[in-house]
Amino acid sequence: MKKIGNFVLALIQIVIILALISLICFCIYFFLYRGYDVDKIEEMTGVSFDFINENITIANEENKENEQLQNYIITGVEDNNVYKNSNNEQIINKLNAEKNFFYTQLNDVAKKIYNVFVENKENLKTGVYEITLPNSITNVLYQTNGDSILAEAFQDSWDAFIYDNTDMFFVDTAKISLLTTKSTWGSNVNYKVTIGKGDNINYFDDAFSSYDQVQNAIYELENVKLQMKNQLMGFSNYDKIKKVHDWLVDNLEYDTTLSRQNKHNIYGAFIERKVVCEGYAKALKYILDDLDIPCILAKGIGQNSKGESEKHMWNYVYLDNNWYAIDVTWDDPIIQGGGKLTNDLKYENFLKGSKEFYKNHIEEGQISIEGKTFSYPILSINDYE
Fold it and tell me: pTM of this prediction?
């Protein structure tokens, strides 16, 4: 019985080998002696070459549009010709939904790390979660100067992530650390790279100490955002921007004491209502992001009415095919003697073009001392009309 089984198995193997040989011979004959017969291939496979070519063409066009869009978002375009000359709704929708302006400027390694941050947003709420980077990222350590490449990519990705995601208000950037451990076994070298709290107790901002506290803060912020969003339904993008700007000016107060823990973030803006310029700027982006109106943070030097230079933060927003500047902080000045805020003062820095805005604002693209210098979009020369 065992011999019969072996014979049957051997017979099956012979049949398979003969079938493979026949297939190889057929392919050689088909391509070498009969040539590249498209009609015959279509008849045999049931796949139309026209269909294949059509889809390749569509894919190539989509890639061109995506490349065009990315180049536009990163550098801006003089007179915005790319945007004005395009009637493609897909590009317009992608641009309007763009919330990750700084991400687009990262190199491939930094983008992968940035995506790891996005995937771990929920875990970061614990304040102690340790992120282990995948091999697709840590393999860079096997390259020449791999340590430096990874360290730079980490810093750049974190800078971009924090500027693109104002909802990460509970994390203290200074407490986030990159740790690399190396192990060897004979000639084999392995790396493990983690991102976590380092020697700190946690990486929370000082105002927060637990996951539950962070969740409660997020719940409060989401309620405020939802109420504002519901009140803005049906308005044009211009009116939405103006009403959010007005709400911030009317409801926030500049923290002159500089002592509040949340003075730099959206919690300080929407819940405690006392912040400095960074809090104003992040608050505007937080709401406009949810309304799908492109809005980014910009930092630099501002020269105040006294002629004094100071570190400052403001916003750039995209409206009607152009980028404009908004400085909510300076539109909410402290009026000596308790005088009334006039419209001239309230909108002095609202939807401004480069001609006026850059008279007292100087951009700085370097978010952190060790990080890369990011580019900002090219503003309209003239103010919005």
Answer: 0.75
